[in-house]
Amino acid sequence: MTLSNLIRKNNLIMISESKVKGLIVVSLMLAVIPFIIFFFHSFTEYKNPVFTNQCDDCLVLEIVQNDRKTGVYFVSPEMTVNQLLKSTGVGKPVKNNFPLKTGMKLMIDSVSENQNIVVTEIPAADRLSLGMPIDINKATEDDLLQIKGIGQATSQRILDLRKKINRFHDIKQLMAIKGIKEKKLVEIKKYLYVEPVGSFINY
Predict the structure, then answer these.
(1) Which terminal CB of the chain, N or C, has fewer other CB atoms within 10 Å?
(2) Which pairs count as long-range contacts for 106-112, CB under 8 Å and 24+ apart, including other chains?
(3) Domain locations along the chain
(4) Could you give phi then psi for residue 182, rounded to 5 degrees?
């Protein structure tokens, strides 16, 4: 800083005229930015993520072919696995055609001559990010901690109760846990569900 810009005189600091102008410009910019942001948000229309509004009650499925993820698909509720394979161009039709269920993860091994499809579930973390509930009977502590309203103590109590009763048959059984009453249950049950035994089969 040169003497022309800053002069110490009688213990007072004198700021040059150019620096004062600079401070005024910066202050005006900081004052205007909130208004710009406000008007931008006012005239910006919110758009849903791609494909989420393509059909009512869409099924959400994931396809993995030869250990490589091909993508997550939103399909109509009436679609079968052969229709899905044909429309995506992945794999070959299967002899035992079956209806699709939301949350299915189709693992296709098409390297060998005899194609094999293993049907499992989309992982819990992926399900939650897609706005889908997770199976409370398969959820890990880490899975439960991702749910809003479930902390360390509550997640441990859920796991302890599951171990004690072997498996949950109804989400309402969570109300036996300390700290989970009707209001709390309403908050968390949209993230959880009970999958019937033997829902996923190999084809």
Answers:
(1) N
(2) 106/61, 106/62, 106/63, 106/64, 106/81, 107/64, 108/63, 108/64, 108/65, 108/66, 109/66, 110/65, 110/66, 111/66
(3) 6-43, 59-193
(4) -60, -45
More confident call, 169 vs 1: 169
CATH superfamily of 59-193: AF1531-like domain (1.10.150.280)
13: which DSSP letter?
E
pLDDT digits (tens, 9 = 90+) for 86-115: 888 887 888 888 999 988 999 988 776 777
Q: Strand, coil or helix: what is 193?
A: strand
With a threshold of 0.70, does the pTM exceed it?
A: no
